Amino acid sequence: MKELENKVALVTGASRGIGRAISLTFAKAGAQLILVGRDLDALNETSKLICELKLGPTPLVCQMDVLDISSIANAVKLALDSFGQIDILVNNSGITGRSAPLWELEESQWDEAIDTNLKGPFLLSKAVIPSMISRKSGSIIFIGSITGKRPLVNRSVYAASKLGLVGMMRTLALELAREGVRVNLISPGFVAGPRLDGVIAQVASDQGVTLEEMKATWLEMVPTGKFVTPEDIAQGVLFFASSRSGATTGEDLNISGGLVMYS
């Protein structure tokens, strides 16, 4: 029997990057997936990959905005009407926000990052949790960041939003501990891909150096000498989603190549 066979998993931000890697990993483990996000074409591409590679059951695809309550309600209703349960919720959607000193940030830029990265997971978790409580079973996984634990210049709003997730996760884990619902968080380090390239390019521009020079500087900060991959993150999420972590709740797991070794 596969690790997530007969489990239903809702994954946000499943259109690309970490979210797509989680979706492929879950499908291979046997999960029935509900792929949600704003980019319907990219979500369908993730679903197509799963089907073409014959990784698992055909996913359900649903366009959803994590800040739109009616959109969230529709996605949760679709999942419950289709499968009768949501066993696993992965709160992965997020944005990097503007890279700038705090005093140069516009209020709208602060609000956008805090709303997307912190309020969004709150709204979706709030919508899913009652069904988990009714079944006395569930696993909720948040995707945080090492940013804030190891501060990066000009990343104040991103750090605030992701560290806020840690506080919400730990409190929620305590609130749900007797309800059979586990709550944990992954803190990725520097994850190879277009998003990281964009952040490094912005920092390089701010400091007047080339992209290659700045990328080499960031790599030097990582003890293993290499960036982590979306697939590395997906394996950590799979652990928290599976019965292997049945006695684990309220944990913040760094997957950073040793960049951060503390919670």
Automatic annotation (TrEMBL):
InterPro entries: NAD(P)-bd_dom_sf, Sc_DH/Rdtase_CS, SDR_fam. Keywords: Oxidoreductase. The keyword DNA-binding does not apply. It holds the Pfam family adh_short. GO terms for molecular function: oxidoreductase activity, acting on the CH-OH group of donors, NAD or NADP as acceptor. Gene3D superfamilies: NAD(P)-binding Rossmann-like Domain (3.40.50.720). The keyword Oxidoreductase applies. SUPFAM superfamilies: NAD(P)-binding Rossmann-fold domains. Belongs to the short-chain dehydrogenases/reductases (SDR) family. This is Unannotated protein. It comes from freshwater metagenome. The lineage of its organism: unclassified sequences, metagenomes, ecological metagenomes.
